[in-house]
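Reply to dn_fold:

You asked what the input looked like. This is it:
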Amino acid sequence: MKAAEETLRICVEENILMPFLASRQKEVRDIMVTLFDQERVTEIHEYNLVRDARQEGHSAGREEGIRAMVLTLKEFTADKAAIVQKLVKQFELLPQTAEEKVERYWNS
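and this is what came back:
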C-alpha cells in the first residue's frame, strides 16, 4: 500500500498522467496494490519452491551418504552391528533406523 501511495504521489508531483489520475486515482491505487500483492505472493511461492528443492536435495544426498557408508564398511567388516553403530554416530540416526538402513543397503 505504501509503495502504491508513494508511486501515485510521485506521479502527481511530476504531473505524470494527471488527467487520467485525477478521475481514477482510487482505481489505479487498488490495481497497483493488487499487483504488488501478487508480486509478493509470487516471491513467497518461488522462495518455497527453492527451499523445498534444497531440502529434497539434502535428503537425497544424505541417503546416498548412508548407502555409501554401509557398502564401504561392508568391505571391511561383516559385523552389521558395528556398521549400525557407525551410522548412529555419523548420521545421528536412531538405532532402529540405522539397522533398517544397513539391511536395505547390505545386498545392493
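The helical segments are 2-13, 18-76, 80-91, 95-106.
Hope that clears it up.
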